[in-house]
Amino acid sequence: MAPVPPPPPGPVHQFIAGRRALESDLGGSPGPAHPVLNPATGETIAHTDLAPLRAAEAAIRAAAEAFPAWAARPVGDRCQVIFKYKQLLEQHFDELAAGIVREHGKTSGEAAGDVRRGIDCVEFACAAPVLLMGRTLPQIAVSSSFCRTEDKSGVGIDSAVDRVPLGVCIGITPFNFPVMVPLWMWPMAVACGNTFILKPSEKVPLSALREVELAHEAGLPPGVLNLVTGGPAVAEFLITHEETRAVSFVGSTKVAHHIYKTATAAGKRAQCMGGAKNYMVIMPDANRDAVIEGVVGSAFGNTGQRCLAGSVAIAVGEAAEWFIPRIREAAGRIKVGPGDAAGCTMGPVIDEPSRARILGFIDSGVQDGASLVLDGRACALPASGWFVGPTVFDNARPGMRIIEEEIFGPVLSIMRESTLDAALSTLNRSRYGNMAVIFTSSGYNARRFKTHAQVGMVGINVGVPAPMAAFPFSGWKHSFFGDLHANGEDAARFYTESKVVVTRWM
Ligand code: NAD
To answer: What architecture is the 278-477 domain classified under in CATH?
Structure first.
């Protein structure tokens, strides 16, 4: 008997008011669909509805209705749910990591890192009782009216500022950290007393849906956290809706800027994290093993699909002599394959358009005259899925596309400079300002670098200076639009409004 074919991959559900639903369940007709693919095989595993506008409206309504009761719950009670959620994430750790490997293509180790760093944010959200404390200043003035006779100096007036939740908040997330980036946003938002609608990337909605479902198993009341799939039409609808108070966005610079302008023009507060082009400066005095380990992890980890990926290495002075042969050798040893294959150290890129874009960058580097030291097009790659091998250019120069634009793939471009100051002025030309890294054994060089690099996150002998959840994720320039960043105390301030109270008791 012929084997029974598997059922066709179904649509990804919405999660609204505490339960899964499809657009058709809500009386709407499904919009155009985007396939959710396994990048290691090319297999379609589900379909995302790109424009479920009934679902988006229902999610806003559910979030608006849930807000008063949720905001009135004591912050300690709200955090109890987040504590339980942290436990559930630990219990479902392997399942979540396996889901990331399947729909994103990361290696198993990278997927575990995605979940672990996400859990860090959940733990940090449990600090909401401390982060929400207001401030008081007694006796800001004295009133002589309504004075009791015994109170000769008048009636004291006190003042305080409270931090109060905003209402309905929106989160729009990219494909490259399917579990962690949503966890940058909603745990702190709901711990602060807000309600939330998450619109994950149409490329990786399944991990986000599971994350939201588990939050309800932990006891989050219906409507406090909702998920709506979709593309630009849904994002636009959510961020401009009259009930929406705040918008958190993470994605490419072009979209981040557009979302920032649209949201703020509609009167919403917005924090929009964008793309990056990150530099790593290699000084001749650096610990060579630490350089190679750090640069390989930064440039090729997550297949270069990280906003903290080191994309350009500047070899200063004689560092080029040892750095270039050693990095070529180390990058050449990377084992490319499906993320859960034994020994694999680099997985596929997300989809065919990404692969084509990255190959186009490699072609442009060759045409612009950079020297191809390691050609990711030429190595042995799996036959199915979207793979690009690790690629290294030497003699890259300003003006080349491989230097000016974010590649978001496993391509490292090496530039050469004669001094640290020349390296600093090269990297400071960039329109992006996410992170920059120096490898050196000189405290003087490290301090000079930290002081003068025009970026929001600095690494000193560290390839990926990712802030832990207690610190803000601090991009600058075209890597960030807004004032208050994700994570850290910034997040608690972003998701709350200040309310000043001036008090006089007669
Ligand atoms: P993307 O900008 O294509 O998409 C991000 C989100 O925006 C998705 O949910 C998508 O559906 C939505 N979107 C796309 N076009 C839109 C439009 N015109 N209007 C409204 N919404 C729209 O980004 P991506 O390819 O998913 O992610 C990769 C990018 O994210 C890279 O540039 C990377 O550097 C950046 N990123 C930045 C950070 C950071 O903290 N700075 C972190 C992770 C990723």
So the answer is: 3-Layer(aba) Sandwich (3.40)
Of 279, 273, 253, 252, nearest to 428 (Cα)?
A: 279
Q: How many CB atoms lie within 10 A of CB 90?
A: 12
Nearest CA residue ID for atom 21, ligand 1: 232
Whether the CB-CB separation of 200 and 173 falls below 8 Å is answered with yes
Residue nearest to atom 6 of ligand 1 (CA): 174
Catalytic annotation present for 169: no
Integer Cα distance of 462 and 459 in angstroms: 5
CB of 406 within 6 A of ligand 1: the answer is yes
Per-residue pLDDT of the chain (506 residues; tens, 9 = 90+): 566 665 568 999 999 999 999 999 999 999 899 999 999 999 999 999 999 999 999 999 999 999 999 999 999 999 999 999 999 999 999 999 999 999 999 999 999 999 999 999 999 999 999 999 999 999 999 988 877 777 777 889 999 999 999 999 999 999 999 999 999 999 999 999 999 999 999 999 999 999 999 999 999 999 999 999 999 999 999 999 999 999 999 999 999 999 999 999 999 999 999 999 999 999 999 999 999 999 999 999 999 999 999 999 999 999 999 999 999 999 999 999 999 999 999 999 999 999 999 999 999 999 999 999 999 998 889 999 999 999 999 999 999 999 999 999 999 999 999 999 999 999 999 999 999 999 999 999 999 999 999 999 999 999 999 999 999 999 999 999 999 999 999 999 999 999 999 999 98
Residue of 79, 307, 344, 379 marked active site: 307
Residues 6 or more apart whose Cβ sits within 8 Å of residue 237: 53, 56, 57
Tokens 């290691």: give the residue. Answer: 40
Domain with CATH 3.40.605.10 in the chain: 14-131+164-274+480-498
Ligand 1 centroid distance, CA of 134 (Å): 34
The protein residue whose alpha carbon is closest to atom 43 in ligand 1 is 307
Pocket of ligand 1 contains residue 168 by CB under 6 Å = no
Fold observed for domain 14-131+164-274+480-498: Aldehyde Dehydrogenase; Chain A, domain 1 (3.40.605)
Stretch(es) of the chain classified as CATH 3.40.309.10: 278-477
Sequence-distant (6+) residues with CB within 8 A of 68 are: none
- Ligand 1 pocket test, candidate residues 106, 110, 172, most atoms within 8 A of CB: 172
Distance 440 CA to ligand 1 centre (A): 33
Query: Is there an atom of ligand 1 within 6 Å of 231 CB?
Result: yes
Is 174 close to ligand 1, i.e. is its CB under 6 Å away?
yes
Model's pTM, two decimal places? Answer: 0.97
